[in-house]
């Protein structure tokens, strides 16, 4: 992804701008400089973003604004505010350069709220290497949900202390709400619709995801740890969410996030996917009508046979310490049509067929709610423990669980089994 240097400071223009629309006295929220703009001021706004000083706020009045891109870098205590998501709209559909609609880099104390961002070529808002980030009442949408959309709608990465609240994301060709390589994050009271993934927590530690509604995506919620990144994730809790009706085709782009390791692997009909992540607790969620697999727990080996060679302090391909309990789960009578055209989806279809072929007593039941690939740390230690990685399940539903025994797939010995006993919480 290209990076663009800050423009030279436009001293004369800024001086006039500040005289026209800022308060020299620190306001009640602690901002020393307050700027206010309306539609038609796009050039002034772009200049103001580039030349912001510490402790500044920008208010964008009601209306639609047309931008190429906006950038803020290396400042402290910044607020960007609109009149409301249905009133202040930043339209990036004519974007000709830059990887994002809004790019925020190295800002300590950044908040944005009360507006809609739409139709950038790349990510709608990327917040990089920043601290104390607050994103509220922000809508980030692409008008068309397909591979021409940018990857991430709301995208804090390599940040510390992030809050995403009361936001809405639509149309991302990767994840609507994506928190990557971040320490301490909360995602709450948000909605995500018509993305490949509604929300993804990737290589992020100490995250809480609750009171959200992720629906109508390919997959509702992903918790991934991937190799070759700056930190390992873990200690993620997801609770009181509604993950439902995520059955749409996967339209991830080829390339960076549509590659072997990317969200392109998410099968249509996935409620929750936990990939190579550890210290995860998933509880008190409603996981409804995700008609391939309600919950999948898989190792890096499932999608990359060379995953063991990529192990280091930042990456372990084996998911460990996974607690799944007290979730409400339902599934429809059949796979979503899009699953039959997807590489991982075809594996899930084949798994259901294999279970029913080897056990007629199932009477052609649907795939169990929880799919576990069964690839454990025994692969690395040459051990034989039944549950060496502390997978803990406490759920009451029938047809609850399948251990895929994925390393045997494609052989005559392959027999997935539905015995959850070794994985019940002790």
Describe the structure.
9% of the residues lie in helices and 38% in strands. The chain has a 29-stranded parallel beta sheet that branches. The chain is elongated and about 70 Å long. The protein contains four helices and 29 strands. With 426 residues, it is mainly beta. The chain has one domain (11-423): Pectate Lyase C-like (3 Solenoid). The relative contact order is 0.07. The protein has helices at residues 11-21, 42-50, 343-358, 378-381, and strands at 33-37, 56-60, 63-66, 70-82, 88-91, 100-118, 123-128, 131-141, 152-157, 160-165, 168-170, 175-180, 183-188, 191-193, 197-202, 205-210, 213-215, 219-224, 234-239, 242-244, 270-275, 280-283, 286-288, 293-298, 322-325, 328-330, 370-372, 391-394, 401-403. Residues 127-300 form the Right handed beta helix domain. Residues 1-20 form the signal peptide. Pfam families: Beta_helix (PF13229).
Structural class: mainly beta
How far apart, in Å, are the first and last alpha carbons?
Answer: 47 Å
What is the total domain count?
1
Rg, rounded, reads 23 Å
In the CATH classification, which architecture applies? 3 Solenoid
Low-confidence segments: 1-26
Number of helical stretches of at least 4 residues: 4
CATH topology: Pectate Lyase C-like
